[in-house]
């Protein structure tokens, strides 16, 4: 079992600086003045994890990819804790002769097998859906 370490250091008010296991700093701010909120970071983490998988899988399947964007829409519960209830990931894949079947397969593999963030959120009851579009270029 792998162990990761990170730290979050209070700056002022509800502003913190988080330092990741790899040594990168992230601004965290509950009021969103100096950085993203903790829940925004969870959403970005999911998008980053899924996008990483999609790019990696598409490249392994010899697709000529120039750009991948993941646009996320999330709904949160009205009660405290205001957890995510639904998250939709819309992938926009740009490249040359990209095959729809390869993109669909990459997204499915990410969601069902590889993306740790997706698996963790789904296990916690979050309904995660996906779709995609392909742009030639």
Q: Brief description of this entry?
A:
Pfam families: OsmC. With 137 residues, the chain is an alpha+beta fold.
Q: What oligomeric state best describes the polypeptide chains here?
A: single chain
Overall mean pLDDT stands at 97
Strand order across the biggest sheet? 1-2-3
Query: Beta fraction of the residues?
Result: 35-45%
Tell me the total number of β-strands: 6
**pLDDT < 50 stretches:** none
Distance between the termini: 42 Å
Organism: Moraxella nasicaprae
Protein name: OsmC family protein
What does this structure look like?
By secondary structure, the protein is an alpha+beta fold. 34% of the residues lie in helices and 38% in strands. The chain is built from three helices and six strands; from the N terminus they run E-E-E-H-E-E-H-H-E. The protein has helices spanning 38-60, 100-114, 116-123, and strands at 7-12, 15-19, 25-29, 64-76, 84-96, 127-136. The strands form two sheets. A three-stranded antiparallel sheet has the order 1-2-3, with no helix packed on it. Strands 4-5-6 form a three-stranded mixed sheet, covered by helices on one side. Strand 2 and strand 3 form a beta hairpin. Helix 1 packs across helix 2 (100-114). The radius of gyration is 17 Å and the shape is globular. The N and C termini lie far apart (42 Å). 18% of the residues are buried. The model has no long low-confidence stretch (mean pLDDT 97).
